[in-house]
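Milestone M4 deliverable, item 7.
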Amino acid sequence: MMKKNSLLLMVFIISSCSTLNFWSDDEEDLESPKELSAIENRVDLSINWKRSSKGANYLGAFEPAFSGQEVFFADEEGTIRSLSRETGRVNWEEKLNFQLSVGVAYGFGKLAFSDNQGNLYLFDIDSKSIDWSSNTGSEVLANPVIDARFVVTRTSGGELQAYSMSTGERVWSFRSQLPPLTVRGTSSPILSQGNVISTFDNGRIGVFQLNTGFLIWDSPISYIKGASELENLIDSHSRPVVIDSLMYATNYQGNISIYDLAQQRQVWAEEASSLVPPLVLNNMIVVIQDNGSILSFSNRTLQQSWLNEDYLRRKLSNAVEFNGNILVGDLDGYLHIIDALNGITLGRKKVSSKAIKSIVNRGDAVFVVDEDLSIISIN
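Output delivered:
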């Protein structure tokens, strides 16, 4: 009887190990990216210019900043460049003696950025020198934002912090409650009507007074539903989007939610799982889900308009508006143009051999950043 029980126990252990072995580096039973189907290009894309940089951009934390006809772009090795928006020509570059963890933010003749030791810097464009640096106390993977008086950043330790633009002194901070397990996120705060709005790793979104850091109100994007720490990952990995008096936000394994800023409350939510900001255009709300599917809702009726599953498991980037359509990148360096009205793919172009990590729309041009920190101008 004892031998029989021991044998049963061994069988259970072996079968359990095969179930739990998804943590192992040797097992790759995840489904492959869905193959792209052939399409007829009805809308064309062209590369205006492309410029390479040094380092890696696995988390997509390096984004360009803009001022007039200048594009500011930094790489992981610590080189900051001013590029011509029209040609990509280097106007000037400055090599720092430390590595960066995020890209640069621009405002009022200054650039703000962080290094891989958690230090926040303010850089003066005219003198090409650092005005000040201040330690945040934690890793920074979110791009800061610049106001006339403050530089605001969010740390991986769950803190939202504001620093004096003139002195670099920390003026206020807010610490959110970190869950036991989080996605290593890069959600940047935004400035809106004298307030700071930020999402957090606990799946909440908060509105703060910029001057004081006072929490005006906050709300969950979604609630914990699972029984395990993995199932309870509800990080908000993306910056919110504000249009007029409405705010749109997404989170992982959670919702796409709409908030009325005047009423200070959530007015609508629908189940979705996303690591990138929603896109609002043509009275549509477009959600890029983490599994590669694309959801669209009517911004009037709030009913689902269409679902595109052509790009499952292709690790899609954020989406931007492009001539009234949707533009999104994937893990193989393709850009896809999707009809906002029906979700049908209208065009496709391979612009990189590496994954597309972020896309920024600047009116007459779109700027794409890939995993190897190449920046590509598209028109």
